[in-house]
Each structure stands twice: as structure tokens, then as C-alpha cells.
Amino acid sequence: MVLKAALVCVAVAALLAYYCNEPVPQGIAEPHMYAKMTGIIFRTALNLGRIGEYFSAGSEAQIFRSVFEAWMNVGLKLKGTSYREGLKCTDTMFDGVNVRVYEPTSTAQSDTKAPGLVYIHGGGWVIATVDTVDPMTAHVAKQLGAVVVSVDYRRTPEHLFPTAFDDSVAATKFFLQNAEKYNVDRTRIGISGDSAGGNLAAAVTLALAKEKGLPKLKTQALIYPVLQAINFTTPSYINHGHLNSLSKDLMVSFWLWYLNNDLSFKKVFEANNHTSAELKKSQYAGYVDPEMVDVKPVKKGNLKFPDIPNIATILDPRFAPLMADDADLKGLPPTYVMTCEYDVLKDDGVMYAKRLGKAGVKVNHDHYEHGFHPFLIYFDVYESAGTAMANYLAYLKKNL
Ligand SMILES: *[C@@H]1O[C@H](CO)[C@@H](O)[C@H](O)[C@H]1NC(C)=O
Ligand SMILES: *[C@@H]1O[C@H](CO)[C@@H](O)[C@H](O)[C@H]1NC(C)=O
Fold first, then answer.
1. Domains held by the chain: number
2. For residue 115, what are the CA distances in angstroms to 140, 334, 378?
3. How far apart (Å, rounded) are the C-alpha atoms in residues 336 and 333?
4. pTM (2 decimals)?
5. Of all protein residues, whose CA lies closest to atom 12 belonging to ligand 1?
6. Is residue 358 in some structural domain?
7. How confident is the model at residue 3 (pLDDT cuts 50, 70, 90)?
């Protein structure tokens, strides 16, 4: 009994220390939101993953994932389930892929068909599930009166690229083909996702634009998306790579877990030594750096890479959508991009928005000067995240 109480005290003190010692960058709208998300939830999970792997208790990715999800589940338990009122939520399969479908009861009874939205959660292709974003997807379904399909794609490192992409494509196609079963208007289906889910949403949009015989996606809405792995020294990586909310170190780990599950290449990637001098002057480098002069166009097949498993994949738009050629961007559906200042991924999103605009795609870009990655998760608790959610919903109301 005494031992138990002592253990609880130690644990609470440790968490409090994490919370209080989290360096919060100046300029963040709600510092306690940052300290809670980053200091407690994220860093304890990541550190336990590293310590656990060191003591051979499991792999870093898997322990990180388990602890992170345990934290998020505590949050869900505390919330209760009242936020799901007015929705029918069903866990099912679309073409062999696990999905959770949210149907507003009002739209199910209505004579007119509802719009639909495929939602792909983030978490570096490694952590998080449809549960992590359950309050968010439920909120979006209710506010839009839309049927939302949240995709529970298979994650890495158990399933390397392209499994998450393939699952996302399969689920999206199934929804487009079977919209009527959900009383959904197949011409009013969009796709959205945050972080790694934004990567998958963008990749699916590019892939489906080339498919014949399918209804077109009405819009893509990308929330602080991850879009490129050839340049880890963009201004946002340089300015914010040290932030614990999503450090450069962790983002590079996520990319490697997705690419080949070999973190021994971390330092090489961080120094941009995974690309050749030729690639650094090519159009692909130019996609990340619009100021680049003297771009020397190259053919993918002719490029040399260092000896790293699967490395040529970094130019595959299914893996890194910013690597799509201009011709592939033309004709994409109207696009929404959300970026945050305190985010290594800011420039990924900014560059994609710019390139899409140049290719003639209608683009809405919301940038949050005081926002951080992944603050939208707290849309129901913190004002700045709530405002971002409202703007995102306003876009979808108009464009879905
Ligand atoms: C990375 O992109 C930035 C601009 O975003 C540019 O200044 C830098 O030279 C690029 N680095 C490499 C290695 O391509
Ligand atoms: C990156 O390449 C440069 C130049 O070849 C070299 O000096 C440096 O040690 C390399 N760094 C890493 C981490 O590979």
C-alpha cells in the first residue's frame, strides 16, 4: 500500500517535471497546450521507446506507439462518448481495409444525398489510430452533415511503404464506388488528413487523378502535411528542428521507419547526404527550393544514389507527393492547405500550395503564426486550435 502510494507520487512528480521543464517557444498561442501535448504525452512516449529498446524490451517504434496510445486513450476515457451523439459509428472493412464510418443520423433520414469525406489520421505512419482522431472525425461529420470514413491503414515498421498508401487508395476507391449505400453523393466526396495522413491524402489524390472510370475527388484538404524527404535543411527544418513537438530528429526517424526501417541512416539523412550533388541541382531539389537558379533537369532512372535500401523511393510521389511533376499537378481538385509556424513541415506545405497554384489548381492556404504541430487535435479545448478547426470546416462546407 505504502509502496504503491510512493510509486504513484514518483510517477506524478516525474510527469510534472516533464510538463514544467518543457521549453515552450515564445509565440505559441497557448503555452500549456504545447507543454501538455509535447512535454507529457509525446516526450514520455518517445523516451520510454528509446529506453525500452536500449534494454531490449521491444523496438523503439512499438514502445513509443504503445505509450502514446495509452496516453491518448486516457484522454478519450475522460472525454466520455457524448461527442458521438447524433452519429452512427461503424467499424467495418472497405475492400479489405479497416475503416470507421461516421454517419450523421440527420443525413441518413434525409431525401437528399450527403457529401462524403475520407479522413486519414497522422502519426508518422507509425503511431496513432482512428481512435486518436475519433473526437475530431466525429466533430467534422456532425458539423458538415457528411459521412466521414476514417481509414485504419496498416502502419510501419511492420508494414513498410507502400502498404499505408495502398490501403488508403483501396478504401477511398471503395467509398467512391459504393457511395450510394451510405446515401452519399459520389460527386461530392473529398479527402483529408493531418501530418502523415496529409501525406497519404495528397498521394491518393495524385494517384486517383490518373484513374479512369471513377468519380473525381471534389477536394483535398491537407493539414500540416509531410510531403518531401530530399531536403532536411529548409528554413522550417532549420528554425524549428529542435522543437520537441516534432523535432527534425523524430521526423527523419519517421521517414526512415516508413522507407526501410533502418535508423542507422539518420545522421546521413539529417545532413542531406542521402542525395547526390546531381540530385541537389535537379528539378526535384527545385520543387523544395523555388529560389533555386540553374536547375538541371534529370531523368529519374539515370540518377545515382548512395547505398541505402529503397533510397530511390524518395522521388516517388506516392511516398513524397511534392516530388510529383508539374504535369501531374495540373487538373488536381481544389486544395486546402493548413500550415503552422512552429513546425518543421511548414515549408513542405507552403511549397506544395505554391506549386499547385502555379499549376492552375485553386488553392486555399491557412497559415497559423502561433500554431504548432499537431495542435488541431486540441480543437475542442483550446481557442487557437478551435479557430483553426472552424476555418478548416468553413472551407469544406463551401467546397464539398
Ligand atoms: C533545401 O531547401 C532550401 C530552401 O527551402 C535551400 O536553401 C537549400 O539550399 C536546400 N538544400 C539542399 C541540400 O537542397
Ligand atoms: C556528409 O557529407 C560531407 C561531405 O561529403 C561529409 O564531410 C560529412 O561528414 C557527411 N556527414 C554525414 C553525417 O554523413
1. 2
2. 12, 16, 25
3. 10
4. 0.95
5. 231
6. yes
7. confident
